UniProtKB/TrEMBL annotation:
InterPro entries associated with the record: HPr-like, HPr-like_sf
UniProt cross-references to Pfam families, sorted A to Z: PTS-HPr
Highest taxon of source: Bacteria
Positions of the HPr domain: 10-69
The species this protein was found in: Paenibacillus sambharensis
Protein name stated in the entry: HPr family phosphocarrier protein
């Protein structure tokens, strides 16, 4: 299965927000607004943590959780 659609969708969703949105996959941290970063990291079956900071963090968290689940990707949105 190709994750291209998921990657574009996730990146486009992230870019709608001013908040910093960072995906943690094991020991790597990826800026979700970077399509290239996602390409090298996003693999089905992994579980990810999403760290969101900024002025519209609450809306960003909700939108990101939705887009990840839409593509059947496991993500835990971390509330700091």
């Amino acid at each position: 299965m190709s994750n291209n659609a998921a990657i574009v969708d996730i990146s486009q969703t992230a870019n709608q927000f001013r908040s910093s949105i960072v995906l943690q996959a094991e020991s790597k941290y990826i800026d979700v607004k970077s399509i290239l970063g996602l390409f090298t990291t996003l693999v089905s079956g992994h579980s990810y943590e999403l760290h969101v900071h900024g002025p519209d963090a609450e809306e960003a968290k909700a939108a990101m959780a939705e887009v990840f689940s839409k593509h059947n990707l496991q993500v835990r949105v971390v509330s700091e």
